[in-house]
Design a protein that fits this description.
The chain is built from 6 helices and 16 strands. The strands form 2 sheets. Strands 1, 3, 4, 5, 6, 7, 8 and 9 form an 8-stranded mixed β-sheet that branches. The longest helix has 16 residues.
Length: about 400
């Protein structure tokens, strides 16, 4: 968000009085992560509770800066993905179960004994007694080993009730499992935005704002569902995977990268592929996922807005209607969703706009994320989102195809 500039400076002064934000590779004794590797255990070793608590909201991206970005996540057979959007080769498949590593097959039985040779009569003229017939031993097999038990399903995340809400008034609360903080290292500092899980066939995609994940040096990226300072990892940590070149697997419209955060504000959306947590579970299997809805219109009667504001120890929730906002600034063209909700400063960028929120599952239809016009707005009490239309649908399909090819 454009309004993060002042807040980031204040937070940095409060949280790190001795100097600048912690340098990722030097603070806390965490070893540098090898190129192409970034597992849940490595992410947990790097993103300690102390480092997560000291992370600051991401500072604003200069409006006229083009992103010298790494290539889009590469397909396995190519060193880098082509610049043109890659459409899925086939319709999206139903959600799959989490692949379970199968141990090498055990031996299926003991070697079979050979039958003894037939008896030969004695070489004398006298008739030899008929040798007793020896029955060939019946082959025996060891019982087949039991089929390895599948990985037990994770306990479904408990969904806390939302507090009583007055339209337009934000309140801090304990969060919901499907939304959390996205931590990252950029320009040598530790930062965060807000992100949420979006349902996908691979059950491994999260959604945030594009401006949160821009940059060729965006590294050590990890998603933590329902982060609070009191419970920093209630469901574990899900690392944003890397391709063979060591680049995080993040999908952002190439026009947003090349034209900048103002000129392409209508495309301020990013999808990222996350790996399993340290127990081997996919994120959507643990916390559920919101349904991506495109083409729903700008005016929504009731939207639940969730974000992680600045230095707050807990996330924030608000409900209100959205309206259509068309920019009159030629430098920031386009139309956006707008919502009035108090108390959404820096850090809330990427937070989901949810319609049809289901209190039982803690999920809804995601129709926007905080971002877009002035990367989310220049006032903490009014937030914006890029409109989720055909371009965002194509970006999602590209991410689904890329995540599937990478499995």
């Amino acid at each position: 968000m454009r309004r993060t500039l002042t807040m980031a400076a204040v937070v940095a002064a409060l949280l790190v009085p001795a100097g600048p934000l912690p340098v990722a590779e030097a603070v806390g004794g965490a070893a540098p992560v090898a190129v192409g590797r970034w597992s849940a255990r490595e992410a947990q070793a790097f993103w300690t509770a102390e480092r997560m608590a000291s992370a600051a909201p991401l500072p604003p991206v200069p409006a006229d800066s083009a992103d010298p970005a790494p290539p889009e996540p590469a397909e396995p057979s190519e060193p880098a993905e082509p610049a043109e959007p890659v459409e899925p080769a086939e319709p999206v498949e139903p959600a799959e179960e989490i692949p379970v590593a199968t141990p090498p097959p055990a031996a299926t039985g003991l070697p079979l004994p050979s039958a003894p040779p037939a008896a030969t009569p004695a070489p004398t003229p006298a008739p030899a007694p008929t040798p007793a017939t020896t029955a060939a031993p019946t082959p025996t097999r060891a019982p087949a080993p039991p089929t390895p038990a599948p990985l037990p399903a994770p306990a479904r995340a408990a969904v806390p009730p939302l507090p009583a809400l007055t339209p337009g008034i934000g309140q801090n609360f304990d969060g919901i499992p499907v939304a959390g903080r996205m931590f990252l290292v950029k320009d040598g500092g530790a930062y965060f935005c807000t992100a949420s899980v979006v349902s996908s066939p691979g059950r491994n995609l999260v959604l945030s704002a594009g401006h949160c994940l821009l940059g060729s040096d965006t590294q050590q990226v990890a998603f933590v569902p329902q982060y609070t300072r009191a419970k920093p990892q209630p469901y574990g940590m899900f690392p944003v995977l890397r391709d063979a070149g060591g680049h995080s697997k993040i999908w952002i419209d190439p026009r947003y990268r090349s034209q900048g955060v103002d000129r392409a504000a209508a495309l301020d959306v990013a999808f990222a592929q996350v790996g399993p947590n340290s127990r081997g579970f996919a994120v959507e299997a643990v916390v559920g996922g919101n349904r991506l809805v495109t083409g729903a219109g700008y005016a929504q009667a009731r939207v639940t807005l969730i974000g992680h504001p600045a230095s707050a120890a807990r996330p924030r929730v608000c409900v209100n209607r959205t309206t259509k906002f068309t920019s009159a600034d030629a430098r920031i063209p386009g139309s956006f969703l707008r919502i009035n909700c108090t108390g959404y400063p820096g850090g809330t960028s990427g937070g989901p706009f949810l319609t049809r929120y289901d209190a039982r599952t803690g999920t809804g239809d995601v129709v926007g994320v905080i971002g877009g016009w002035k990367t989310g707005g220049d006032k903490a009490d009014t937030s914006y989102s890029s409109y989720f239309g055909a371009d965002i649908r194509k970006l999602y399909e590209k991410a689904v195809a890329g995540a599937k090819a990478g499995r």
